[in-house]
From TrEMBL, chain A:
GO cellular component, one term: ATP-binding cassette (ABC) transporter complex
Protein name: Doxorubicin resistance ABC transporter permease DrrB
GO MF annotation list: ABC-type transporter activity
Organism ancestry: Bacteria, Bacillati, Actinomycetota, Actinomycetes, Mycobacteriales
Organism per entry: Mycolicibacterium sediminis
Residue numbers spanned by region Disordered: 1-33
One GO term (biological process): response to antibiotic
Pfam families membership: ABC2_membrane_3
Matching NCBIfam families: Mtu_efflux
Keywords: Antibiotic resistance, Cell membrane, Membrane, Transmembrane, Transmembrane helix
Entry's transmembrane regions: 53-71, 91-111, 144-163, 169-187, 199-218, 266-284
The keyword Transmembrane helix appears for this protein: yes
Automatic annotation (TrEMBL), chain B:
InterPro entries named in the record: ABC-2_transporter (IPR052902), ABC2_TM (IPR013525), ABC2_TM_bact-type (IPR047817), ABC_2_transport (IPR000412), ABC_transpt_DrrB/DrrC (IPR004377)
Entry-linked Pfam families: ABC2_membrane
Similarity comment: Belongs to the ABC-2 integral membrane protein family.
Name of protein: Transport permease protein
Length: 289, 295
């Protein structure tokens, strides 16, 4: 190629790039910050829930857990609960089950995304590796907030009250949402790993009901057979219930004492669960690259 | 060079050549090809059997269905026995298993139906339903094969739950005949629930379908006479608890195992099953046709 044609080619390239830069000025280009990407992907998950009735079903399931546990068990279990109403006693478990159910939806959503190939598409795009996960977690937190708010309203109807100060009330809600995030992370991992939406629901629901029923959320530990009492006392749901009860208080006379002894184990379970799940998430994402 | 092997095909001989399918001048459209018409009653059973076997094979290879159908009711049965067993025995004098074993058989029937719904949604999205629609497969086979496969799944689940229940102390005190009928009751009501879940899955968004069906079975479980005795519910809700479909099935199964009224709850349960299926039949047919034509 002669120097003249080379010069022409360069000129053409320059004019093309100039034309392109004039067509889309740099200042007008949409920002591609991680925060924007996170927001767009979060809205992508949240928007359909407002259209397809998912929010209503989330509210309905929270109500269902309240009436489903409280009405049948009030007479048969309430007699064994001393020092507080059965509504006050049961409320932490109801809220935990409602939030855990929101995490089941997270698992189902991530499995559906995986099987439809959306996650692979994200990996091929200029998106931070943790941004899709962060957006799914934000959407799950939104679901957990709805579940928790509904559960608290239902709890108020059955006689639950916050007897601690406003700080304890905030602590109760924060701990509930932390549990929700931990369970959503776990659900998301299950969904991403098995890429089978059918499998996510039972894999999440069986432990939810098993740990929920075999916890101090329904009846005092002394009411369980002696051989299973150590498990019931120390399993994570029971530890969450102990912490939530301490934050909510028992009655107007006993506002509840929050100590490391009753809140520490719950926080340890949450931190441990989040840490392990994040490590497994990282392994799952590298394995699938 | 190797010799070319002649093809020996009986159809090449003049005496066994099938009649020309186009020779029926008096008939038009698909009826002209009567021998090849996929919607003939003769094809119905063969096609439904093949499709049912396909669904069952998929389930056997799928962990989700096994967990949902077998592990979940068994785990819940053992858990309920630990948590509520002594309390209920103290109140009623009878073992709680005569309520909780039938309840868990019903839960197994209902929760497994949800997996059927989700897998149907996936097949719709993947275009499998549309592919079957353009193949010479009997139109009713696709839908009825799922219901037939569910009948097999529910019966197996009931037998597994019954076996675990017997390990915990559940016994049939009324003989073999009632025991056989006991096993069939969850299948009857379970198929009605399957019909409802499939109908829901053909119209609703996937996450909504999952949450709604889970919510429905949980309500039916918590507000049934298998969870806690009827007398333990507040008076205002007892009529609802007593006459809801799962309670009717449980009471009939209780009567067939330990003794008590059977006919009234059994007929009530049959009425519920027939009502649910009749209510879902038209939406099911229309929804399945629409889902199959999409894509």
């Amino acid at each position: 190629m002669t120097s003249a044609t080379a010069g022409l080619a360069e000129g053409a390239a320059d004019s093309t790039s100039n034309a392109m830069s004039h067509a889309i000025p740099t200042s007008d280009r949409p920002p591609t910050s991680t925060a924007t990407q996170w927001w767009v992907l979060t809205i992508r998950v949240i928007t359909p829930t407002l259209r397809n009735g998912e929010v209503l079903t989330q509210i309905a399931t929270s109500i269902m857990f309240t009436v489903g546990y409280y009405i049948p068990l009030k007479n048969i279990m309430g007699a064994f609960v001393v020092g507080m109403s059965y509504g006050q006693y049961l409320m932490p478990l109801i809220a935990l089950q409602a939030v855990a159910f929101a995490a089941v939806s997270a698992a189902f959503r991530s499995a559906t995304d995986s099987v439809e190939g959306i996650n692979k598409r994200f990996k091929a795009m200029a998106i931070g590796s943790l941004t899709p996960l962060a957006s799914r977690m934000s959407a799950s937190t939104y679901r957990c907030v709805i579940a928790l708010a509904t559960a608290l309203v239902c709890g108020y109807v059955i006689g639950f009250r916050f007897y601690g100060g406003w700080l304890h009330t905030v602590g109760f809600c924060a701990l509930m949402l932390l549990v929700g995030v931990a369970l959503s992370l776990l659900g998301d991992l299950i969904g991403v790993s098995n890429e089978n939406p059918e499998a996510t629901v039972p894999v999440m629901l069986v432990p939810q009901l098993f740990f929920g029923l075999l916890s101090v959320g329904m009846q005092p530990v002394e009411r369980f057979p002696e051989w299973i009492q150590p498990f019931v006392r120390n399993q994570p749901v029971s530890q969450f219930v102990y912490a939530l009860r301490a934050l909510a208080g028992d009655s107007a006379d006993v506002p509840g004492t929050v100590t490391w002894a009753n809140v520490g184990p719950a926080l340890a379970w949450i931190v441990g669960l989040i840490a392990v799940t994040l490590v497994l998430h990282a392994r799952a994402s590298t394995r699938r690259n | 060079m190797a010799a070319v092997t002649p093809i020996h095909d009986a159809r090449l001989h003049a005496d066994v050549i099938p009649p020309d399918p186009w020779s029926d001048a008096g008939q038009s459209g698909r009826h002209r090809l009567r021998r090849h018409w996929e919607n003939s009653p003769r094809r119905f059973f063969a096609h439904t059997w093949v499709m049912t076997a396909r669904v069952l094979r998929r389930w056997i290879r799928d962990t989700a269905t096994l967990v949902e159908s077998l592990v979940m009711p068994v785990v819940l049965l053992v858990t309920l026995d630990i948590v509520l067993g002594d309390n209920i025995k103290a109140v009623t004098g009878d073992s709680a298993l005569y309520g909780s074993v039938p309840l868990m058989a019903m839960v197994g029937a209902m929760t497994g139906a949800m997996v059927t719904g989700i897998s149907l949604m996936r097949e719709r999205t993947d275009g499998v339903l549309a592919r079957f629609w353009v193949l010479p497969v009997h139109r009713a086979a696709g839908l009825l094969s799922r219901i037939a496969a569910d009948a097999v799944r529910i019966t197996l689940t009931t037998l597994v739950v019954m076996g675990v229940g017997m390990g915990l102390g559940f016994r049939f005190q009324q003989g073999v005949g009632p025991a056989v009928l006991w096993v069939l009751i969850p299948t009857i009501l379970g198929l009605a629930f399957t019909g409802a879940v499939i109908a829901l899955s053909l119209y609703a968004a996937s996450t909504v379908m999952v949450e709604l069906s889970e919510g429905i079975w949980a309500v039916l479980m918590f507000f049934s006479t298998g969870f806690v005795p009827l007398a333990q519910y507040p008076e205002w809700i007892r009529p609802v608890v007593e006459h809801q479909p799962v309670s009717c099935a449980i009471e009939a199964m209780r009567g067939l195992s330990i003794g008590g009224p059977v006919m009234r709850p059994f007929l009530e349960m049959l009425g519920w099953s027939a009502g649910i299926l009749l209510l879902c039949a038209l939406p099911l047919a229309i929804g399945f046709r629409r889902a199959s034509k999409r894509g």
